[in-house]
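Module 6 notes. Inverse folding takes a fixed backbone as the condition and produces residue identities as the prediction. Think of it as a translation problem where the source language is geometry and the target language is the twenty amino acids. Below is one complete input and output pair. Work through it position by position during the lab.
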């Protein structure tokens, strides 16, 4: 219980720090805070409560959930690419590997998952856990516990299959280019024959 409380305090501190950064969104939050007298941290909690209710009960919960799972991580990935520190690049690459794996699993099991009550709320909670910028976040846990060991076990087979697909793709492109050249030559020949017949 003490660890949960400590993690919550760390998250609260991180959120408060983000809410006080200088950008266009926090400028608006600052104006609303001054106009209403409500602290921005409590406003954030209110927005989170509304989002949670929407995910539990609202129409369009799937779109909202996927939007949340993409919006902040997408922006944070952009910031990571632009920074000189490469540790944040690794953090967000791990998030996208987990996100992509989850999306693939979800594609195959969606017929069953949608019968789970409040599925979008739980999925959104999972994605938020995956993007929390701490050592105990879900991306690191899922990646190091499940994805990495699986891929390392089958890495040679995966590489072999990828090489086969690459070779097949190269042959397909080569054949397509050859057919395109033949079609172009045939069209040019037909046009020349047509022009010759008209001149007679």
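Target side of the pair, the amino acids:
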């Amino acid at each position: 219980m003490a660890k949960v409380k400590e993690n919550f305090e760390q998250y609260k501190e991180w959120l408060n720090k983000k809410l006080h950064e200088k950008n266009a969104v926090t400028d608006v939050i600052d104006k609303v805070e001054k106009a209403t007298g409500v602290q921005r941290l409590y406003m954030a909690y209110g927005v989170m409560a509304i989002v949670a209710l929407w995910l539990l009960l609202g129409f369009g919960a799937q779109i909202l959930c996927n939007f949340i799972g993409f919006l902040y991580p997408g922006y944070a990935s952009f910031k990571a690419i632009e920074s000189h520190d490469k540790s944040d690049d690794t953090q967000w690459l791990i998030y996208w590997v987990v996100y992509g794996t989850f999306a693939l699993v979800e594609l195959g099991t969606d017929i069953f998952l949608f019968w789970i009550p409040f599925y979008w709320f739980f999925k959104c909670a999972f994605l938020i856990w995956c993007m929390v910028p701490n050592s105990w976040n879900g991306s690191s846990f899922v990646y190091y516990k499940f994805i990495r060991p699986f891929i390392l076990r089958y890495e040679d087979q995966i590489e072999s299959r990828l090489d086969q697909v690459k070779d097949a793709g190269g042959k397909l492109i080569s054949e397509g280019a050859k057919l395109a050249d033949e079609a172009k030559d045939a069209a040019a020949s037909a046009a020349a024959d047509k022009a010759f017949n008209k001149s007679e």
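Reference fact for the lab report: The chain has a mean pLDDT of 86.
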